[in-house]
Design goal:
Layout lengths: L1 H9 L8 H11 L8 H7 L3 H13 L2 H21 L11 H84 L2
Helix pairs in contact: 1-6, 2-6, 4-6
Length: 180
Amino acid sequence: MLRDIEKIVLGKQASDLTSAEKNVVVRARQRRTVSTNAGEDFLAGATFGQRLADGIARVGGSWGFIIAFLLFLVGWVVLNAVLLATRALDPYPFIFLNLLLSMLAAIQAPIIMMSQNRQTERDRFMAAKDYEINLKAEIEVLALHHKIDEQVLKELREIRQEIDALRQAIAALSSRSHNP
């Protein structure tokens, strides 16, 4: 029954199924769930560097970081332009600050790009998980339809047998009443 449904749902022979489709079919046969926490599954395979890149991107893209960095910049300018006007560590036009900002941007940009690439990988992973879950749901729904169809056909056969038995009984009664 499930093999017929697989052909209907997937439209493929067993040898043509992808590994994800085979996994779903096996789990459907075993009546096991396909769904898991995809976020945890994805993070389980992350290296230290990938988790670090994600953390840096998460912090660097937050309002807390923007506000703290803005306060740092204002503090730097006030310290060097006002408080230490005669002996500033980095006098106006703040060349050392410019160097620090350039170095920060040079380091932060590739880290954010790595994190964006990981987000793309995560989206693909989630889409694959969604596909597996949807496929299993479709297989299960079709299996239920098939089971209901079989039950309906069985009941129809039984009803036909009962109707035939009633017809025979009526015919027998009718023949007895015509032939006294």
